[in-house]
Amino acid sequence: MSVIYNTGVYSLLIQAATGLADLYVLTLDFEGDIVFVKNLLWIEFFVQIVELSFYVWLVSRFHTISNITPYRYYDWIITTPSMLFTYSMFLIYHADNHVDFYNTVRENLLTFASIAILNTWMLFFGFLAEMGRISHRIGTALGFVPFIMMFYLIYENFAKTTFLGQTTFWAFSGVWALYGFAALMPYKLKNAWYNILDLFAKNFFGIFLAVYLWMNRKNSAK
């Protein structure tokens, strides 16, 4: 069996397990400010549903498609801006627990929009490379420009004010940066790495939010 198929199956199983764990936490009752994080976990759960759907398709259609990589962008164009939004919103909440969800979105709308646009450009350059319009080296180099810019915005506006923000920022951005290096690898190795990185980038952040909710559940009514 191909390493892409095997890692895809393992990824699919872990996604299902982590998704069920997140869903369990979402069924619990929370009150007060922590509901803000529960709303974020619902968004992250949606991200995992999209990811899971893609991997079900990948595993079921693997032997009939010669190049799976371009199809990943249909997943990423939906999931990556959602993840950047939830991560940024979490950083805002962690810095100040007494924030309103919709007011926070409105007050930071321009920054969120800028991050989403930069993310789209990053994906666009990667997609051009996968479609053979530009080389993978050029696509990766160009993609890192909006990548650095959008994570700079996240750090300066949201992450740098707390220790947890700084710590998670380097972990979050570091995992995302590895996608760029994986893009330069041969086809099989690249997609095997994508299967693994998707777990860390998407599912583990969902688990992080679920654990954060669980640990703060006793204080949710205060």
From TrEMBL:
Q: What membrane topology is annotated for this entry? A: Multi-pass membrane protein
Which Pfam families does the UniProt record give? Answer: Bac_rhodopsin (PF01036)
Q: Where in the cell is it found?
A: Membrane
**A Gene Ontology cellular-component term:** membrane
- Name the InterPro entries for this protein: Arc/bac/fun_rhodopsins
Can you tell me where the transmembrane regions are? Answer: 7-28, 40-59, 71-93, 109-129, 138-155, 167-187, 199-215
Sorted alphabetically, the keyword list is:
Membrane, Transmembrane, Transmembrane helix
Could you say which protein family the record assigns here?
Belongs to the archaeal/bacterial/fungal opsin family.
Q: What name has this protein been given in UniProt?
A: Bacteriorhodopsin-like protein
Read off the lineage from the record. unclassified sequences, metagenomes, organismal metagenomes
